Amino acid sequence: METLPQPAVPPFEPPPLPAMVSESGRRILWILGVYRATCATLLVGIALFLDLRVAGIGQPNAFVTAAGLYFVFGLVTFLWVQRESLLISLQALLLTLLLGDIVFIALLMYSGGSASGPLPILLFPQLAASGWLLRSRIAFFHAALASSVLIAVDSWRLIDGLIPGPQILQTGLIGFGYFATVGIALALGRYTKASEDLAAQRGIDVANLEQVNRLIIQDMQDGVLVVDLNGVVRGHNAQVTRLLGGFGRMRGGMRLAEFSSILHDYWRRWQEDFAETLPPFKVEATQRLLRVRLVRIGSGLNGGTLIYLEDLGRAQGEAQQIKLAAMGRLTASIAHEVRNPLSAINQAAQLLEEDGSVAPEGHRLLSMIRNNAKRIDRIVGEVLQLNRRDRQQPEVIAFDEFVASLVEEIAQAEHVPAGGIVIKCSGDMLVIFDRGHINQILWNLVRNAWQHCQKKDGSIQIVARPGYMGDAVICELADDGPGIPAELRAQIFEPFFTTRPGGTGLGLYIARELADANGAALELLPRGPGAHFRLTLKRAAAQPVKV
After folding, report:
1. Side-chain-side CA neighbours of residue 488 (13 Å)
2. How far apart are CA 235 and CA 307, in angstroms?
């Protein structure tokens, strides 16, 4: 016999929590509490300072007692709604307040006789608050409850002969006003709620859009500055720092002139004549050629200016990268073919030297063959390294330990005496980089520095510190040599450019390419007396993996 499946047990759902009172709801409850306490105070004042019998109050003592109790109720509820936690839902809170108002006003009406006819008007604000805050049909129940109780009280008073017959009609009209008040407040509350929800959604959309815009601006290749009417920089992306070479000193709130005097002059000229064509300018610190574009934002006293900085050398660099990539693929295949006969030449020269049949004057020719063969082999090796740019394997590296170990290795290989290289690293700094690439970059920089320095203690200085924003590590290498002439600074990173006899001109070019491939920046700073290079690396937050 087939077993019928058992019905699924419904999951347990905890009871809903009391509805939280919003800030605007608390404000309305506070106003309502002030209104209730004020009405109760006026009723107590009337009861204490006027002759109630002259005013037509049928039962003065009962009226005074009811007014006093209503005053206490108003004071207690006013203090209650000021609490941080109300312990009950908004629906229960409003019903409790309404019941209190109805009870005490009913007592005042019964004890006041014919003179208490206008007292039901006091419930209009409470019912309006119920419609506004509840925004549901339950608010009509509040109107029905108030109308029913007060009509019942007036019916009882009519039976006892305390009021004339037409007064119950007046109470009925007030009850109709209760329903109208609740209906209008309910409609306005729903409309306000829809407007508040729409405004909240628009606020979220604006915040998301602002975040997206900020991320897009930060990732833009162009530099972007926001400048107000007073020439104060209100914001800029990281690319501005890279283009202008102001690592560690640029921040929002500075004047534009402190960022760049040329930019400030361009901005001032553009303010005077929007149609003026501004020529590109070259930044001495970074040797970059920048084109400036200014756009007006806002209007009047709230306006400002967007300044775009476009690196004109980037387009040239991208074209050169495409050209060099094609050349790299071609030279890679040629290089393998060159190394085979080159090995044969080296081997033949070595065999001739070992054979002893070569005349003494021929040894100089053999030495020239070996030296030039080694040079060709080195050039071929560096050309092959052009294809290593896109093969990085980034990892987290403890930079201070890595630099200390690498410098020790370089000193042994390049015969640098102790004290020739001075390292200053501030604290533990972790970077994200390909270990082989950073090894090659620093080795090239240190070797070049040692070849051109005075070869004394402290001739080479390596200083590493965190970047200004905390998301980068800045490593600077300086020597005490003659430096690089100003007219050659723009060419120093070009391939096959060299000032040293026997050099290939690929060392610094490959170093910059490897830095760019790892999201870093290698630049030559306009400082002296020797050459001063800066390598800006991405900083890592995680601990390095111990291998």
Report:
1. 9
2. 11
pLDDT of residue 458: 87
One-character DSSP codes across 86-149: -SS-HHHHHHHHHHHHHHHHHHHHHHHGGGGTTGGGGGHHHHHHHHHHH-STHHHHHHHHHHHH
Residue 442: strand, helix, or coil: helix
Tokens standing for 33? 């509490």
Amino acid occupying residue 447: R
DSSP 483: -
What tokens does 131 get?
Answer: 């419609």
* Rounded-to-5 percentages of helix, strand, coil across the chain: 60, 15, 30
Q: What is the pLDDT of residues 105-135, one digit of tens each?
A: 888 877 776 666 677 888 888 888 888 888 8
The answer for 161, left when phi > 0, alpha when psi is -120 to 50, beta otherwise, is: left
Rounded to whole angstroms, the Cα distance separating 475 from 403 reads 10
Q: Which of 536, 524, 446, 533 is nearest to 486 (CA)?
A: 524
Cβ 129 vs Cβ 185: under 8 Å? yes
Confidence of residue 10 (pLDDT cuts 50, 70, 90): very low
**For residue 13, what pLDDT is reported?**
45
Rounded to whole angstroms, how far apart are CA atoms 125 and 133?
12
Name 255's Cβ contacts closer than 8 Å, sequence gap at least 6: 231, 232, 233, 264
* Mean pLDDT of the chain, nearest integer: 78
C-alpha angle 285/420/401, rounded to 5°? 80
Q: In what order do the strands lie in the sheet with 281-283?
A: 233-236, 223-228, 304-311, 288-297, 281-283
Model confidence pLDDT, tens digit, residues 208-254: 887 877 777 777 778 888 888 888 888 888 788 778 876 545 666 78
pTM: predicted TM-score of the whole model, two decimal places: 0.43
Side chain identity at residue 56, one-letter code: G
Residue 505 falls in which region: left (phi positive, over 0), alpha (psi -120 to 50) or beta: left
> Token pair of 300, please?
């009047």
Measured on CA atoms in the order 449, 456, 435, 311, is the torsion positive or negative? negative
DSSP 232: B
CB atoms within 10 A of CB 263: 25
Evaluate whether 142 touches 127 at the Cβ level (below 8 Å): yes
Greater model confidence, 55 or 275: 275
Q: Which residue has the tokens 């306005």?
A: 188
Signed CA dihedral, 423, 424, 425, 427: sign only: positive
